[in-house]
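Form 7-S
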Amino acid sequence: MNNVKKYFSIRDLENLSGIKAHTIRIWEKRYNLLSPERTDTNIRIYSLASLQKLLNIILLYNNGYKISKIAKIDEEELPSVVREIIAKNSMKSHAINAFKLSMINFDFSLFQNTYNSLLATRSFREIFWEVFMPLLGELGLLWQTDTISPAHEHFITNLIKQKIYTATEKLQVIEPTRQDKVFVLYLPENEIHEIGLLFVNYEVVLKGYKTIYLGQTMPIESLVDFQKFYDNIHFLSYFTVEPNKDRIDKYIEEFRQEINVKADSKLWILGRQTEHLDQNNISSDIRIFGTIEELSKAL
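Output:
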């Protein structure tokens, strides 16, 4: 399951490309765009080269090329035509496809080269919003449909984390310019989905605030000591899977009791589990944000 994936079903191609399997079959039959192999049970399977070709075809198709015209392009010339399109237009769709391929084949060099190409014309923040966010949005579906394994997901998410760390570190060489708040960022116990909180940390630092980043699965009692050192603390957390809908209201009560929230301390929360909070349990010391953009505007 965790080996490099060399062959793909037509459903895999559909999930990775966003093009319906029915359409892929039509392109294959009518225009001979792909040449699948067959298993012993006569099921189509596609090579990594076929996946790469399909992603290139889709980039041209999304940039106004008709399939009939694409079919007439020599297969060896296809990558150069794609490069011309990328040079004239946004690299966004090409970059997302390249990152998918780097993930499928555990190819760090492809990831790094693609990222560096983006960085030549974009800021890290633009890359995250325009490319990484759509890519991350697709990972759940790809994992659920068994197109990728947990190893693939961990590979690509950890590379993205590295980029967030690097971008944040560059900002942190400058002393914070805003002193009215101190942000303590953490994930609750058993919560390990960290990318969202890492990028929130980047956004808060970018706004000029001091942050203390604690990371994954922090018990509430470990947060108590911060109130001895700082005033106007804003604890900031991201509830993706924990605390779950059955525990989230109890968690808020435990937080209040353990931290003994002072008048100048707040708890800011993001994540889909916040949808399950009892609104009657929300007081002025707690603020819920639907998106990172919403939080960023509030800073």
